[in-house]
Amino acid sequence: MSFVHKKNLTLFDYVNYTLLLIISLTSIFPFIYVFSVSLTDPATYIPFKFYLFPQDFSLASYKYILSTNSFMNSLKSTMFVTVVGTALNLVFTFTLAYALTKKHVIGRNFMLGCVIFTLLFNAGIVPNYLLVKELGLLNSYWALILSSLTNAWTLIVVKSFMDALPEELEDAARIDGCNDLMVFLRIVLPLSMPAIATFTLFFAVSHWNTYFNALIYLTDAKKWTLQVLVKTLVIDSESSGIAAAGSAEDKMIPQETIRMAAVVVAMLPILIVYPFLQKYFAKGVMLGSIKG
Question: What domains does the chain contain, in order, with CATH numbers?
Fold first, then answer.
């Protein structure tokens, strides 16, 4: 026989749950408003009115922004930076982390010290900008990719994860004739798939949401990333960035519905992917924390 213990809710519990519900609703309402306005027929849209549900459902705003050259260019820029940047992040992070796990590597302690030093101290915005400028990377997508190939926190976590892998497997592979490169490719990487999956998500989300670096390194509006374009539409209230295409009838669409549609398109990929892959984000916090 099993007994189910039912907790008696106290006044504090009711108050606590009520406050959490209110906070949750206040967090959700802005998203509901953005979706509702973006799906509202531009002909019936009334400014400064709260829309809980779309009024006269319409995809006119989405059709408009997806037909403009500026929005499509920013989408292509963001996709390029995300795909190429994530791939290079994984290559540099896992190869360097693997090298740092080998005690026989010359200069290992010095390199590890440099990594930890950057974890504690940062050069700042101006030195980073001057470095990118001297390398000739200004107004280039590579300024966004090469300036963030890896970071100290990720390296330390991946290194700790690899330290926990059984050394006997590597020894057995070397007995079979594998060199260090083959051991890394055939033994270490397959065993590191949980870490690879986790940090692929971390890197991809980071690149997709890149804003500040794109704002200071990309001077050509045609190379803007999606987040910079959305910022221009929402905060600067400039329509010129997205009104590069479209008919005279399209240009009668209210700017507010266009802004909301742009925000939805910018955040939709993350909203779709994140709920299904949230467990990997949670697992990423624990990677490398337990050895044995």
Answer: 60-292 (1.10.3720.10)
∠ at Cα 121 (119, 124), nearest 5°? 115
CA nearest to 194, candidates 162, 151, 163? 162
Q: If 0-12 CB within 10 Å is exposed, 13-18 middle and 19+ buried, where does residue 154 land?
A: buried
Task: Say how many C-beta atoms besides its own lie within 10 A of residue 36's C-beta.
Answer: 17
Per residue in 81-135, pLDDT tens?
Answer: 999 999 999 999 999 999 888 888 888 889 888 888 888 888 788 888 898 899 8
Nearest to 226 by CA among 83, 76, 84: 76
Q: Which residue, among 93, 30, 103, 25, has the nearest Cα to 260 in the 3D structure?
A: 30
pLDDT, tens digit, 9 for 90 and up, residues 142-172? 999 998 888 888 898 888 888 888 888 888 8
Cα 23 to Cα 158: distance, rounded to the nearest angstrom: 36
* Confidence bin at 185 (pLDDT 50/70/90): confident
